[in-house]
Amino acid sequence: MHSGNSMFKSVTLLIFTLVVSTLIPLDSSIVEADKNSTPLSNISILDNIECRGCHTEDRLVPMDGHHSNGFGKWRDSQCVGCHNEITDIAQSWASGVKDKRFIALPVSHTSLKRIAKHGMPYLEVAKNVNLTRFDPYRLTVFLATPVTINPIEGSTFPKMIAFPGALNTEKTNTGEVLSEELIEQGQKLYTQHCQQCHTEINPVAKRSLLGLYAFSEQWIYQYSNRITHSTDMNRSMPKISLNEDESKALYHFFGHTFNSQIMEINTQVSRMAEPTSKAPLNIQQTNYMWNNFFRDAGCVHCHGIKGRAQDRFDLSNNTTLVAWLTKNKPLDLWRRLEIRQIETDLGIGHKDSGMPMTGAPLPRSFRDLVYRWTVNGCKDNSGKNMCAVSI
Questions:
Q1: pLDDT tens profile 220-256
Q2: Domains of the chain: which residue ranges?
């Protein structure tokens, strides 16, 4: 196990990337919410366990409930706590100290060395996040369709976990009303003051252009003028003297840019083409799907432990997998894997979150394998169909 899987080295880290994912139907409501009915209290941002697990002082305090992977200390939503423990195990291993928890880590020696040196993601997530920085409506949209905050290759800045439950989809409207005049003005201000650092490709700042979407116009004005956080020693952004009207224009431009990218990803997902090959799997490939695939792909790390991921798609064992296959649309498995590739290409999340949620897209060959398995009836090792044939 600790030598790594030769068939899947490129996604080794997916196995322990701690995310809380949701397999929701692909025909869910579009990403819109009633701007007048989504205050921060509605999404319970401060009380939600998934937020507390990273963004509060209690993030290293063990909670009731246990992982089923052998650590026995953290809930699946406590990213920081679990990743802190994994880093601790890796550092013990690298220094030659025996650690009984080591056996529970299905991680290659190469990855353990990297973790021991650099640590795992989420360990530097900000605690006690100042929610007054955000526009409530935009924050809910951002949580449901997050962007890669900073797409710099090799960046340890964590990828945002999608939280579809943040949106109140029962009351929807057409979203924000943005001014074309202010969008044009904001684009000019962005080019003049922001573009040099907040680009989409290799930004110098911590946030790319899309990552600025959720901030309120009041915060843009205050932060630019150093009215708030003026003593932040970690701040690298210089003071930019913007008036309130200019801040509002940037707010409209940031919203327009984000919304345009949402429209683009919706378009690309709606036009996804199915693979050309529908050839049935051979015996070895079928055996791999039932015994290795979901572990190699990192799926069991979220869908095999208690939490909302498992509630939607239970991979505790093959029995629970069969139960899901017989009651749902198995082709959705392939669709979610394909959506993840599009999300990565565009740098923004889709309303039907791609999988693996914060990991790299699975290689094309693996996605095609899932497609061929599902369209041919999800055959088990005896050749029996576990789902409806889609050919």
A1: 999 999 887 544 556 778 899 999 999 999 999 999 9
A2: 9-130, 283-375
